[in-house]
Amino acid sequence: MIKNYLKSLIKKIVIHIQVLDLRLFLLKNKERIIFVDIDNTIADTENFLKSVNNKNSYKDLLKIDSLDGTINFLKKEYSKNHKFIFLTHRKLISRNITKSWLTANNIWQEGARLYFVNEPNQKIIYFYEVLKINNDFVIIDDLSYGGEHNNVNFYYDIINFIKKNKIKHHDRSFIERINS
């Protein structure tokens, strides 16, 4: 019981530290930003999980193929005038491997940030923080899950937040189109 409480407390502390880092980043940098999801946005995680029967270790994350259409789009449209903030629902333990994957696939840029959420809906916290300072930002995120089981579902709370706040968003259908 104490172990679970401590795990939960640590996860909350990590989120608070990351949000504080984001605030400082926004105050220091006047460049525009783009939030970039990783799995099924720039990494072909669905097909990777299908190929390993949904069993993988954190070391295997380096083996995931990139979605080159998305990466090329980001480089062409956003790399010169936006700072990348990678926002992922991976476990924090995968931080070093995730950053290595981003570097190996030539998408990590100087000054980028890498943040982890425990639950997908926590992404709203980050979007809201940016909205308080600057509403001129972009999101590229499939906002879906279950594709590896051929049962795609969407995170409608996040999608509705994005629509309500009129945030520019490149969604799953856009990502599929530029990678086909």
Could you please describe the fold and organization of this structure?
- The protein is α/β, with parallel strands linked by helices.
- It has seven helices and seven strands.
- The protein has helices spanning 2-28, 45-51, 68-77, 95-104, 123-133, 156-164, 172-178; strands at residues 32-36, 82-88, 113-116, 137-140, 144-145, 153-154, 168-170.
- The strands form two sheets. The protein has a five-stranded parallel β-sheet with strand order 3-2-1-4-7. Strands 5-6 form a two-stranded antiparallel ribbon.
- Helix 1 packs parallel to helix 5.
- The radius of gyration is 16 Å and the shape is globular.
Q: In what order do the strands lie side by side in the largest sheet?
A: 3-2-1-4-7
- Fraction of residues in β-strands: 15-25%
Distance between the termini: 48 Å
How would a crystallographer describe the biggest sheet? 5 strands, parallel
- The helix fraction, in percent, is 40-55%
* Secondary-structure-derived class: alpha/beta
The domain count comes to 1
Overall geometry comes to globular
CATH class: Alpha Beta
Average pLDDT metric: 91
CATH fold-level topology: Rossmann fold
Overall radius of gyration: 16 Å
For the record, the CATH architecture stands as: 3-Layer(aba) Sandwich
So how many helices? 7
Number of E strands: 7
Low-confidence stretches: none
Order of helices and strands: HEHHEHEHEEEHEH
